[in-house]
Write a structure and sequence with these properties.
alpha/beta; 3 helices; 5 strands; globular; five-stranded mixed β-sheet
Length: about 130
């Protein structure tokens, strides 16, 4: 199993999925970590027309339009081999886009990757969907 964490420094979980520049991918086998790999992630800055704005649909969720969905899929390409994505915050559209490609998103309150990984492996990492915007 592979778990991707949204990060800028490889140690802490980024609070904003779209703006983070990297994924830390941790591979788990038999309940234990066997490898770590930093991967580049496309961010809002890669999409010149975005200008750090989000489109909104009538339900008020961020990043819900077709254009945003395409951008989210581009962001997910680097972790297509992962089953779970842990972040500190993201728009509802990004969350749904990850689910569409078979990646389970988890919005965590824990800032430290090592602590969040420990909670995940124990089954106690809570998905805080109330933090979606």
């Amino acid at each position: 199993m592979k778990i991707a964490f949204i990060t800028d420094d490889g140690k802490t979980i980024s609070r904003h999925f779209g703006r983070a520049g990297h994924y830390l991918v941790i591979e788990i086998e038999d309940g234990k970590e066997i490898s770590r790999e930093m991967r580049d992630k496309m961010s809002h800055s890669h999409f010149s027309q975005q200008d750090e704005q989000h489109d909104h649909n009538s339900s008020g969720g961020s990043g819900m339009g077709a254009e945003s969905h395409g951008k989210h899929l581009s962001m997910a390409e680097a972790i297509s081999d992962c089953q779970t994505l842990v972040c500190g915050g993201m728009g509802r559209g990004a969350y749904q886009s990850m689910e569409t490609v078979g990646i389970t998103p988890v919005v965590a309150q824990e800032f430290e990757i090592d602590k969040a990984l420990e909670e995940y492996l124990k089954g106690s990492l809570t998905d805080h969907t109330e933090m979606l915007h």
